[in-house]
């Protein structure tokens, strides 16, 4: 996969791309990440990339010319073909007004061959970039960042770890929070002890079993895998109910899950 990032601060990415899974995936040739400095596409003496907004208002807006020229210099298919999903390519505009990014969209992007990420700054980018260049407008959450770079780093990280071979144990990315799992049996719940099945992940513990008087839950050292599976499911349900009850509305729940949730809601569990 090739990911290209358009930014006025290419140095910002020194760091986020150089550690852990992203670094290893780059070194293994699973993902190639290229940075493009938008100022290189500005033609005046001062390399101006921004201007005042038409109609008045606060702040500056990133001009269309450098972004259009930069995209045109990349080997990417026209917007209509990308929208029709004829090619496995996408041009993404990072924007607080975009559709909120989630694990499902990360999985969708991980299927592509070529992703271009456009990072806005100041009050944002000229809207013609959204209308005529980008085929997706993505927000990483309901808050306003100073620039799209952090959002681009978030997308690179979440997508890269879903590329086959990027994470040592590939099964682990299918067992994490937000990841619905095909092996979830609708009557018995998860088929394995390590599947969260669309819920938030269950709590994890490691050695030592007793640390400063804090012991790990006994069930986890019992060796009883049925008990462990039930305990993890209960804890995942509990955490999801507490922190993200909205996820429960979209999920297939087993009868056991529903009974447990009723107990948790009633405060009897
Ligand atoms: N005026 C814009 C608004 O009110 O929606 C905010 C512009 S923000 C200060 C500058 C740039 O940061 C945006 O063009 C976008 O690229 C990026 N940005 C800000 N918040 C973001 C978010 N939640 N997700 C993704 N990118 C964001």
Structure notes:
The protein has 269 residues and is an alpha/beta fold. It has 2 domains: 2-160, 3-Layer(aba) Sandwich (Alpha/beta knot), CATH 3.40.1280; 175-268, tRNA(m1g37)methyltransferase, domain 2 (Trp Operon Repressor, Chain A, Orthogonal Bundle). It has helices at residues 20-27, 64-73, 79-83, 103-110, 128-132, 149-160, 225-243, 245-249, 255-266; strands spanning 2-7, 32-37, 50-51, 61-62, 89-100, 114-118, 136-139, 184-185, 189-190, 210-211, 214-215. The structure holds S-adenosylmethionine. S-adenosylmethionine is lined by residues 94-97, 119-121, 123-125, 139-141, 143-148, 151.
Low-confidence stretches: none
Counted up, domains total 2
What Rg do the Cα atoms give? 23 Å
CATH class type of the largest domain: Alpha Beta
What's this entry about, in short?
With 269 residues, the protein is an alpha/beta fold.
Chart the SSEs and their pairings.
Blueprint: E1 2-7, H1 20-27, E2 32-37, E3 50-51, E4 61-62, H2 64-73, H3 79-83, E5 89-100, H4 103-110, E6 114-118, H5 128-132, E7 136-139, H6 149-160, E8 184-185, E9 189-190, E10 210-211, E11 214-215, H7 225-243, H8 245-249, H9 255-266
Parallel strand pairs: 1-2, 1-6, 5-6, 5-7
Antiparallel strand pairs: 3-4, 8-9, 10-11
Helix pairs in contact: 4-6, 7-9
This protein binds S-adenosylmethionine.
